[in-house]
Amino acid sequence: MLQGRSILLIVGGGIAAYKSAELVRLISKSGGAVRVLLTKAAREFVTPLTLASLSGEKVYEDLFSLTDETEMGHIELSRSADLVVVAPATADLMAKAANGLANDLASTTLLATDKRVLMAPAMNVRMWLHPATQRNLSTLRRDGTAIVGPNEGDMACGEFGPGRMAEPVEILAAISGLLGGKGIPMPAPAPIPELSGPHGVTASGALTGKHVLITAGPTHEPIDPVRYIANRSSGKQGYALAEAARDAGARVTLVSGPVTLPPPPGVTLVRVETAREMDEAVEAALPADIAIFAAAVADWRTKAEAGQKLKKDGKAIPPLELTENPDILARVSRHPALRPRLVVGFAAETEKVVDHAIAKKARKGCDVIVANDVSQESGIAGGVMGSDRNRVHLIGPEGTETLPEMSKSEVAAALVARFAALFDRLAGK
Ligand code: CTP
């Protein structure tokens, strides 16, 4: 499962550090190579010798150890793996990473790495729920750190609640998901009520280890080297969905048409221009667990793009001959080998919104359609397209739900929470 992959495991100082030995064993058993970095505090809970024996590699400990620096400097160490895993991620390590502190080997490595980081937090429940830790958690997520757990349960300190480190098998599943493996079934992490917003906003880690593929923005279909056919899509809803899926712990690939939005941190962005390029990029990004088609793909392109700028030379107006673009959503919904478990389409309609969307869902073969009214009569000032607000209807296998008008980020968080729950139901969890 992890054949040919290498992991740098940073073990923080907490009672859960003893589970790191089991994690090293599981990674090795899956074919992955592990290099371990122990913080000073972690040494109180687990010995370097245990971890060196299990990993078959030298264990790294101290930033200022000259032997370490001559064998492998901390910069090289931070880049030597495909993924950096922090387990247990203590409140202290999370705070250091969120704020860019670099005063020991672990924090320096986290600051210097150019690889994705997965953290498995473990701490006392009060420490976990403290606004400072929750602030750090949001910052880390925004920076693209994936989070697995923590789980809810009895704690070593005698209290009960979220704070127990995810089990080594759950961490392994998250590693495998992030490294693009097939992923293995993972129990859903405990939702943290304090993080839930008014519309059941995404539970922490609800999509950890999942690959979510999203299309966004318009497509541009060239007429000649300087002109193109386009539409008014801003890409805002698709980009907000990418951020919400990332915040829920997913590995996100965002295939985007031409927009003026900044790339969302922690998301793999693939920029395309035409519908055919978008179709190819989507195919290349498969397999995915969930695919969300939020792009406003041009239905038609010109039959032949003129090689030179069309000139107004006094003759007849040139005819614009069109041909149909591939329907990406319909194609992926009926993909013979790589259909994602959950396929979501969008329907931008100007009249009979729900009726048209129900028909579109059947025609395209997706599991869910998110419909919105893009007419000027939508009730949203200036119309939905380009606006920061949206009001959507969710048409799924279990009926239709209309969400209230919200910002596009709130709509995205509410949708992602529902997609994560539906994904689990489709998976029979
Ligand atoms: N879509 C797609 N590829 C296309 C056209 C549409 O993937 N060539 C996807 C969109 O991303 C969206 C859904 O299909 O998720 C519906 O798009 P829409 O333009 O509303 O559907 P059409 O099939 O073009 O229907 P209409 O006749 O309303 O234009």
Question: How would you describe this protein?
Answer:
The protein is α/β, with parallel strands linked by helices. It folds into 2 domains: 6-189, Flavin prenyltransferase-like (Rossmann fold, 3-Layer(aba) Sandwich), CATH 3.40.50.1950; 211-426, Rossmann fold, CATH 3.40.50. 32% of the residues lie in helices and 22% in strands. The protein has 14 helices and 21 strands. Strands 12-11-8-13-16-17-19-20 form an 8-stranded mixed β-sheet, sandwiched between helices. It has a 5-stranded parallel β-sheet with strand order 2-1-3-4-5, sandwiched between helices. It has a two-stranded antiparallel sheet with strand order 6-7. A hairpin with a 2-residue loop joins strand 9 and strand 10. Helix 1 packs across helix 9 (168-178). It is elongated. The two termini are 22 Å apart. Residues 182-203 have low confidence and may be disordered. The structure holds cytidine-5'-triphosphate. Cytidine-5'-triphosphate (CTP) is lined by residues 215, 275, 293, 295, 297, 299, 325, 327-329, 345-348, 360, 364.
Strand order of the largest sheet: 12-11-8-13-16-17-19-20
CATH architecture field of the largest domain: 3-Layer(aba) Sandwich
Give the percentage of residues in beta strands.
15-25%
What would you give as the CATH superfamily of the largest domain? Answer: CoaB-like
The CATH C-level class name of the largest domain: Alpha Beta
Average pLDDT rating: 87
> What structural class should be given to the helix and strand makeup?
alpha/beta
Strand tally: 21
- Percent of residues in helices comes to 25-40%
How far is it from the N-terminal to the C-terminal residue, by CA? 22 Å
* Total separate domains: 2
Largest sheet: 8 strands, mixed
According to CATH, the fold-level topology of the largest domain is: Rossmann fold
